[in-house]
Amino acid sequence: MPASTSKAGHAVVPREAWLEARKTHLDHEKEFTRQRDELSRERRELPWLEINQDDVFEGPDSAQSLAELFDGRSQLIVYHFMLGPDWEEGCVSCSFWADNYNGVDIHLAHRDATFVVISRASLEKIESYKRRMDWSFAWLSSSESTFNVDMGVSHSPDDVGEDELNYNFGTQRFGGDEAPGVSVFHRDDDGRIFLTYQTFARGLDMVNGAYHFLDLTPHGRDEDELPWTMAWLSRHDAYSD
User: Does residue 189 share a domain with residue 126?
Assistant: First the structure.
């Protein structure tokens, strides 16, 4: 069968030609996998920063210290969810990310890692939004601490609107008072706590399974012609169909 063109303008070829093109791309995918493995190894070998602050987080059962968030494990993964003290609902983008988190905690726990979500909003607001979204992961409030500011994901009103670079290790400007991120901690046998890794902005793509599924499709994320990235997005309970 000779090559042709689909209505979408894409080449349509016989199976042998399709397999040849796919195998060429497979070589590229394997090289990317090797590069990703090397990047992950490099990430694990980064130096650590000791954390000595006494942050307290409000949870549904009790107040907990940072050490208690580990829940007896040596590793802690924190997703910084954009839900500020005066917000009525969670960030739509963070909600998109959080739809990937239900059920992941049990698997992480079996690899010595605890997963929690933290926001500056009150626990009452967090619990209300969590029920609305039907999420089951642990979500705590840092409203009584400077944790979010210290982790670089919340900014004081005096900083908002300034031209200085205030996000992603000082490489970007984030105009709002709340920003997303992931922070990873380690607690040793002596109880010392260390910040081992953080990622922000596009670095968060790695924990969004829905985006990775879209990356497999012919249209991809299909966002280039939108007025801004994720302009198509709604909270999962707000789509019209």
Answer: yes
Chain mean pLDDT for the chain:
94
pLDDT at residue 175 in the model: 80
What is the model's pLDDT at position 52? Answer: 94
* Through-space distance between the first and last CA atoms of the chain, rounded to whole angstroms: 40
Domain that holds residue 68: 49-207
Residues 6+ positions from 227 with CB-CB distance below 8 Å:
none
Does one domain contain both 25 and 53? no
Q: Do 61 and 37 fall within a single domain? A: no
pLDDT at 9 over 80: no
Same domain, 152 and 173: yes
Total structural domains within the chain: 2
% of the chain beyond a pLDDT of 70: 96
Q: Report how far apart, in Å, the C-alpha atoms of 127 and of each of 67, 116, 124, 181, 188 are.
A: 22, 14, 5, 20, 31
Please check whether residue 97 is in contact with residue 80, taking contact to mean a CB–CB distance below 8 angstroms: no
User: Would you say 144 and 131 are in contact if contact means Cβ atoms under 8 Å apart?
Assistant: no
Q: Which two tokens stand for residue 116?
A: 């929690």
